Amino acid sequence: MTQFMDVHHGFEGITPEQLREAHDADLAMEKEEEGVHFERAWADPDAGIVYCLSEAPSADAVQRVHERAGHKADEIHRVPLSI
């Protein structure tokens, strides 16, 4: 499977609890038929940016899960190399 890093804008002031809720919503949706697994999420409350790392068959699959969870990604980037 391929790793993807996606970016969400517009989350100024997000709290740790809100980040956890959003990540949990993704985890609940990933069990459906997309084959996506969300590994981790980070946020910068001052900039209003949330980052999510996932493994998935495609960026489209990642986006479909995020949309069903209620927070469409603004950007999704394939991560072909990591250490």
Short description:
The chain is an alpha+beta fold. 31% of the residues lie in helices and 34% in strands. It has helices spanning 16-30, 59-69; strands spanning 2-8, 37-44, 49-56, 75-79.
Order of helices and strands: EHEEHE
The protein's oligomeric status is single chain
User: Could you give the order of strands across the largest sheet?
Assistant: 2-3-1-4
CATH architecture: 2-Layer Sandwich
In the CATH scheme, the class would be Alpha Beta
Q: Which structural class do the helices and strands define?
A: alpha+beta
Rg over alpha carbons: 12 Å
The CATH topology is Alpha-Beta Plaits
* Percent of residues in beta strands: 25-35%
Task: Let me know the largest β-sheet.
Answer: 4 strands, antiparallel
Q: What coarse outline follows from CA principal-axis ratios?
A: globular
Low-confidence stretches: none
Give the tally of β-strands.
Answer: 4
Compute the average pLDDT.
Answer: 94
Counting structural domains, the number is: 1
Molecular structure report:
This protein is α+β, with helices and mostly antiparallel strands. It is 31% helix and 34% strand. The protein has helices spanning 16-30, 59-69, and strands at residues 2-8, 37-44, 49-56, 75-79. A 4-stranded antiparallel beta sheet has the order 2-3-1-4. The chain is globular and about 35 Å long. It starts with a strand and ends with a strand. The model has no long low-confidence stretch (mean pLDDT 94).
